[in-house]
Specification:
This protein has helices at about 10-30, 45-65, 65-70, 75-95, 100-115, 130-145, 150-170, 175-195, 215-220, 265-275, 330-340, 440-445, 450-460, 460-465, 475-500, 510-515, 515-535, 555-560, 560-575; strands spanning about 200, 205, 245-255, 260, 265, 320-325, 345-355, 355-360, 375, 395, 405-410, 430-435, 470-475, 545-550. By secondary structure, the chain is an alpha/beta fold. The strands form four sheets. Strands 6-3-7-11-12-14 form a six-stranded mixed beta sheet, sandwiched between helices. The protein is globular.
Amino acid sequence: MVVMASMDEHERKIVMEFCHLLEKSKQLFNGLRDLPQYGHKQWQAYFGRTFDIYTKLWKFQQQHRQILDTKYGLKRWQIGEIASKIGQLYYHYYLRTSETNYLNEAYSFYAAIRGRAYYSRASKEDRSELMVKKLRYYARFIVVCLLLRRMKLVRELIVELDRHIAEYTSTYEPDDQIEWSLVLDEIKGFVTADGLVSVMHADTNPIVLSHRLASPRLFSAFKSSFRLSPLTTPPVEKNQYMTLTLQEILIVGSASEQVKFSELTMDMFRMIQTLEREPQEDYNHVYDASPATGRNPYAVPGSKGYMENGERPNRRDNPHKYLLYKPSLSQVLVFLASGFKELPANGALLLYISSDGCFSTTKHPEDMGYDLGGVLTSGRRDGDHKKQKESHCLYPGDLYPFTRRPLFVIVDSDNSFVFQHIPRYFGQPLVTLMSPQDTPPAFQDQQHNGSLFTLFLHSPLTAFCYCCNLTNIPIHHWERCQSFVDRFVTEASRLFTRSRVGEYDEEPSYLQFFGDDFLRLVLLRYVFCDVVLHLHRAFKSRQYRPRCQPPLPEAELLEHPSLQHLVLDLAAHLEVRTHFMDNHEID
C-alpha cells in the first residue's frame, strides 16, 4: 500500500502520475478484446492510443525508478508485467497486420523480461496469480520464438516452463495444474512434429532450419525452409498477363487430430511462414527502453513517430492475413467477406483451409456446389449419416459469391477434390489447388504431425526427404540437394510461362496470379509436389496425388522430361533412387 503522507510534493506527483498511467494502460489493454477482429481500419486508432500510453508508462518508470522503488514499492515483477503487455501488443499487432517486424519487437520485450529476470521472485510473493502470469508469459514467448524459428531458445524455454509448472503445482496445488500439463504436452508435441527431418553438422548436432545462420553459404542452403526473401523468390519471365498481387489471405486450420499449440495447427504454422517475407531488421538486442524513446525500430500506425510528413514508412508489406482455428462456418464467411471487401484494384484473395472432409450421402448428385460434400470448419464429422447437409461444412458452393474477384484456393483435406468444380460465373481469375485425398499406409500414422501436401508447399526438400524415409541428413548433402530444388524451380518457372497454361480460359488465370511472388512460389512448389509424387513408387494411386483446377498441362509441364530428370537426380544424390520409378516405367 502506498503511503502518500511520507512523500514530498514532487514524489507524490510522480507516484500519482504513475498510478494514473498504470490504470489507464490497463483500461486500454482490456478494451482490445472488444475490437472487431476483421477489417483494417476500425481498430488501428485504438491500438495507437494503447501503444502511446504504454510508451509513456515504460519511459516514466525508467526515468523515476528510484522514487517508484522507495515510495511506491515498485517490484520487478510489476516491471515485467508492463513489458509483457507491450510484447503482447506487438504480437497481436503482428497478427492483425502480418508484418513480421512486429514479431521482432515482441521478441525484444519478452527477451528483456527473461534476460533481466523480472519474474524471478514471483514465486516468493506467495500469490498464485503471479505464478500464473509467469507461466502465461512463457507460453507467449514460446509462440513468438516458434514463429521466428528460434528453436534452440524454444527448447530452453520449454525446460524452464516445465520447472516452473512443477514449482507452481507443488506450492499451490492449484485447480488448473492439469491444464498447464496439457499446455506443456502440446508444446513438446508441436516441436517434435516440426522436426520431421534433421539437418546435421559433421559433429552430428542438428541445425535449425532457419535464416539466422552464421554464413551466407548456410543461408543459401536453407532457403527453402522459411519465409520469402530475395534469395528465395522464384525467377519469372514477366508478361502482360501478370497483373495481380496477393493482398488478402484467410488461413483456416480445422484438422481434428493434428498437433497444435496456441490455436495454431501445424499446417497453419507452416502456411503462415510460407506466405510471409523475412523480417528485414536485426533484432538481436535486449533492451530496457520504450519503442518511442531513443529507438523506434518499427513504429505502430496511430502511434507517435509512425507518420512522418503524413506518409507511411517505405516498406514492402506482406499480404494481410486472417487466422482461424476451428471456426464456425459463419466466421469463415464473415472473414472471407471482409477480405473480399478490402481487396484493392488488381488484388487477389487467397483461401487456405486444412480440414477433415465432410462427405455426402446423396446418391444422385445434381448440384456440384452442395451435393458432393465439402470440408468441416469446426468439430468432428457428424455421426448422423441421415443428415443431408452439415451445418459447419464449407461447401464449394459457399465460395461462388467470392469468385467475383480474383480468388486462389488451397484445400488440404481427404475430400479436397470436390472443390474442382467451382465455376467461373464472373469471368475473374480462379485457381484451386487440392491435396491428395489419401495417403499411402506407410505414412498414415504420421498425419497428426501435419499434412504432406502443406509440407511440400512450405519446404519442398523437407517433404522430399520425408517421402523417402530420410530423418537425418548431413549439411553437405542438404546444401547440394537444395541446388537441385533451385534448378527445378527455375526450370518449372520457365516452362510455366512458355507452356499453354490456362489455354482453356478466356484469360489465363494462372499467368495472372504468376506475377505475384508468393503465389508463384506456391504454384512452383505444387508442381514439384506433383512431379515427385507421380514418380514415387509408393504414390501410384491417383488418390495419392494432388489436383488443380484449371488443369495444368501434363506434357508441357507436369510430365516434362527435364523436371522429371531433376527429381530423379535429386533422388540419386540422396541414394534413394529405388523409391522412384525407373525410366522405362514412367508413362
